[in-house]
Amino acid sequence: MKIETTISRELVPPPGGRLHSVRVLVSPQREWQKAINAASLDTPDTPDDYNVRKVGDLYPPTTGPVEEVEMILANFGPNGGSWTKVLAWGKANDLALAVPRQVIAIGEKYPKLHEKLGMNSMHVVATAECVFMGDGRAFGVWWGRDEGVVTLSWVSDCGGDDAWFAFVRPPNGRAGK
Known about the structure:
Blueprint: E1 3-4, E2 10-11, E3 18-26, H1 32-39, E4 67-75, H2 83-92, E5 96-97, H3 100-109, H4 113-116, E6 121-126, E7 130-132, E8 135-144, E9 147-154, E10 163-168
Helix pairs in contact: 1-3
């Protein structure tokens, strides 16, 4: 599936992969635990002892407007994509890295996105790396059936066939260099 960009060129999916575009409203004001619960389909399915609940100090609520953001989700197909390959693809396509609050907005607005994309489950991964306990981690929202879990995985573990890497399409069509 190709996606028309605002700069009159099409984004081409990674070899063997797929692309999907979504628009979300991103709120910077919500307290971290409440944001995680919202992305977990409000059950909450994300256990209290998960590491993702321990990084709230890295993503404190801030003042500012709720912003509409266009997100590009890239799936690298059955063989998945390594973190390096994923970031190189995004950079080559002038896309900005997605941060956790943007991925939370995807999980909250589209709790059945996996069904729309014909998948049993899916994992949407923020492409802006998080450092936790000295290691590079990737924030993500996983959902399938009627559950959703917010995760903090090692970047080396990201890239299975259910992984969709989130990027932001800058409003002017260019991520900036």
